Target: Anticodon-binding protein
Amino acid sequence: MTPVELAEVLGEPPVPEGTWEREAIYVSAAALRRRVPAGPLAERVRGLAGVAAVEVRGDGFLRIVVGEPAEAMLFEPPRLPEPSWPDFPRTWDNPGFVVRYGHVRASWVLRWARELGVPSGEVRGELLDGAYDRRVLRVLAELPGRLVSRDPGWEAYLVRLALAYHDAHERAPAVPVGDRPAGPVHAARVRLARAVRDVLPGPDRL
Model:
């Protein structure tokens, strides 16, 4: 169940809630906005593969727990407006550097993965269960809602995604370190890197 499929049932993209480190949760006001009974809508959402639980809260919002948070990285690459950040100084105080360097790092991962023989077949998204991977997925999960928002706040969003990915890149590497063999978790993290690269603006050629 991808976020797009969930949005099709709800009639609008849901909003991710919390940190996702332990549980991947979305909330949705679709029943209120569409003026439809929340119960039947919740039942339709429960029928989606990958949905672990749906609760109708007292305020009418749906609280949706998904069992496959890695589905958040499955989307068509968006064409986002690139903010007019300066390229210099290349320090962590410059959001332009933070975002473009995130794109570069994700692109490097894809190249290194090919050179090191990281498997490129079926990806086991359930292996992205560490805190750093989950934080990246949590930010990516905001993408569908921001794409239809009147005020998407792209600048702040891109910085948050880049910072989350920098942490994951350094603390949950997508390519083997030292003499360790490449495994399924590396393949999953390479797929995550591809999703990040497709969102963050950066050089067209590296």
Summary: The chain has eight helices and four strands.
